From TrEMBL:
Pyridine nucleotide-disulphide oxidoreductase dimerisation domain: residues covered: 368-473
Keyword tags: FAD, Flavoprotein, NAD, Nucleotide-binding, Oxidoreductase
Binding site for FAD: K59, D322
Cofactor note: Binds 1 FAD per subunit.
Residues involved in NAD(+) binding: G187, G188, G189, V190, V191, A192, C193, E194, E210, G276
Top-rank taxon, per record: Bacteria
Name listed for the protein in its UniProt record: Dihydrolipoamide dehydrogenase
Enzyme Commission number(s) of this protein: 1.8.1.4
TM stretches of this protein: none
Named cofactor requirement(s): FAD
Source organism of this protein record: Pedococcus badiiscoriae
Family: Belongs to the class-I pyridine nucleotide-disulfide oxidoreductase family.
Length: 482
């Protein structure tokens, strides 16, 4: 099906999805699979932030760095070296960049929409009434549901001179073909740590300015510390508990100077702002139909992703992915999208929805996440502190990763650490964190254990293969005393 020509398009679909990022695409797909007609509206690129400016380019940049270092850690293959131009070229391939331009080709994603029969409307959408939207002046209606998946934009704080200094956001940092000699980064979260490692490896002198006493505040301290040490070894300078007071740039493309709360000045060629995200709700009209936003501007939703406060006899407005602020991760947004697609499908067919399927209830267990630095951090569920805050009797079990034979095979002198947090009363794993080289894929076994509430006595019979890194599970359970 071709992209809709606004002049000849039908005015109504069963479901309208706003935002064709990874999350919107999944919501549209699931609703369409339920037998509904679906239109999806996108103002920029089909595939959204993740495909072009976030997950894909950053991971495409990080992988050669990981691969080179992994190779250098294995006796007999130490000769691997990084080719910065090759790294950038790989990134460009991953994001379907058009030649040497700054444009991207989303025809792969558009072709998929075409293939499955979902109508794409290009433009900016806003709610103007119950089940009614305006897209660049044209009014369209949904017979059953509108699903908002408009994502977020980078937060740029009101620091004097910052906006005028035209800082980099994740967009510039993931698309640049230039490696600045000096890169300053405001913020010390996931975006900052991953991109600091990229640019340091490609040759920049990187400085991180973080407000709080430590990097990666959302992660267990021991894991964040391992990444902090690695960044220091990479030559990244860390200014912790430091505020940027003002920013200025010399001319349109000259160096940037940051006045710091310590009284010092930091000069760099580019300044990347990575202090979190702002929901993309401006001009979306959520409140015009009674929808509520929270203090940070994210769209308030029920556990079933229905927008709260909305007028109408039946629920018809939903919000999924980053824009509801529940978990700012692609896979968790897509999970919400699948659930909502099924919910909308059931409601449209007049069936009683099955909450076990149509509510993304596992969000409450704690989302799996991988920080793709070297070392990686892979985590899921609750930290010890979070477990205790919930009034649970929690016990922490720690083991060095190299207690599993597979880790030693992975790299000479493997460095890493694993932790599980156990609910002493229920005898189940509440949370797990692994830090080390190549730990990313360990997190799925942990997610199965946490979400499935698998008793430790059953986990004992899930035998990991020898000699893999998964044997860390055996060591953790032995240490716990199963
Ligand atoms: C540098 C970086 C790296 C990341 N790496 C990872 C990672 O490795 N793994 C992971 O899980 N997450 C990662 N994330 C987070 C991930 O990118 C987001 O969770 C994800 O993109 C959210 O998807 P979404 O579809 O909700 O929103 P988005 O991807 O932001 O898509 C929203 C879409 O809606 C469109 N839109 C907005 N408003 C309108 C409107 N009014 N009308 C029409 N269209 C509109 C936008 O143009 C956009 O295409 C990363 C984020 C950053 C910044
Ligand atoms: N691998 C992944 O899964 C991945 C990678 C990148 C981003 N993401 C997602 O994207 C989201 C955004 O990431 P992010 O790194 O921008 O935000 P973040 O919330 O992870 O980290 C922001 C950091 O900036 C600090 N900060 C806040 N205001 C500051 C200020 N004025 N000056 C200095 N520091 C300040 C905070 O203390 C925090 O450490 C995250 O929620 C994350 O889930 C995920």
């Amino acid at each position: 099906m071709p992209e809709e020509n606004p002049a000849s398009a039908p005015q109504e679909w069963d479901v309208i999805v706003v935002g064709a990022g990874a999350v919107g695409e999944n919501a549209a797909d699931r609703a369409h699979k339920a037998g509904l007609t679906v239109a999806i509206i996108e103002k920029h690129l089909v595939g959204g932030e993740c495909s072009f400016y976030a997950c894909s380019p950053s991971k495409a940049l990080l992988r050669p760095i990981h691969a080179t270092r992994a190779s250098q850690r294995v006796q007999g293959s130490e000769g691997a070296h990084l080719d910065p131009q090759g790294v950038l070229a790989r990134r460009d391939t991953w994001v379907n960049r058009i030649g040497t331009s700054d444009r991207f080709d989303d025809s792969g994603q558009v072709g998929w929409l075409d293939h499955v029969g979902i109508t794409l409307l290009r433009g900016v959408a806003r709610l103007v009434g119950e089940r009614t939207l305006e897209v660049d002046g044209r009014t369209i209606r949904a017979r059953h549901a509108v699903i908002l998946a408009t994502g977020t934009t980078p937060t740029v704080p009101p620091i004097p001179g910052l906006r005028e200094a035209k800082p980099w956001t994740n967009r510039e940092a993931t698309t640049s073909r230039r490696i600045p000699e000096r890169l300053a980064i405001l913020g010390g979260g996931v975006v900052a740590c991953e991109l600091a490692q990229v640019y340091a490896a490609l040759g920049s002198m990187v400085t991180i300015i973080e407000l709080t006493p430590r990097l990666l505040g959302a992660n267990e301290a021991f894991a964040a510390e391992a990444v902090t040490e690695a960044l220091r070894r990479d030559g990244v300078e860390l200014l912790l508990e430091t505020k940027a007071q003002s920013v200025s740039r010399l001319g349109p493309s000259g160096e940037v100077t940051v006045e710091l709360s310590t009284g010092d000045r930091l000069t760099a060629d580019e300044l990347l702002v990575a202090i979190g995200r702002t929901p993309a709700t401006e001009g979306l009209g959520v409140e015009s139909v009674g929808g509520e936003l929270n203090e940070a501007g994210f769209i308030r939703v029920t556990d079933a992703m229905e927008v709260t406060g909305v007028s109408g006899d039946q629920p018809w407005l939903y919000a999924v992915g980053d824009v509801n602020g529940k978990v700012l991760l692609t896979h968790m947004g897509k999970y919400q999208a699948r659930a909502v697609g099924d919910l909308v499908g059931a409601r449209a067919a007049g069936r009683e929805p099955d909450p076990a399927r149509t509510t993304p209830w596992a969000i409450a267990a704690g989302a799996p996440q991988v920080v793709f630095t070297d070392p990686e951090i892979a985590s899921v569920g609750l930290s010890e502190a979070q477990a205790r805050d919930r009034g649970l009797r929690a016990r922490v079990v720690d083991m060095p990763m190299d207690s599993a034979a597979g880790a030693g095979l992975q790299a000479e002198g493997y460095q890493g650490q694993a932790r599980i947090v156990v609910d002493e009363d229920a005898g189940v794993v509440l949370g797990a964190t692994f830090v080390g080289q190549d730990v990313a894929d360990l997190v799925h076994a942990a997610t199965v254990a946490v979400v499935g509430k698998v008793p430790l006595t059953t986990l004992w019979h899930a035998v990991p293969s020898y000699p893999t890194m998964s044997e860390i599970w055996l060591r953790l359970l032995e240490e716990y005393g199963v």
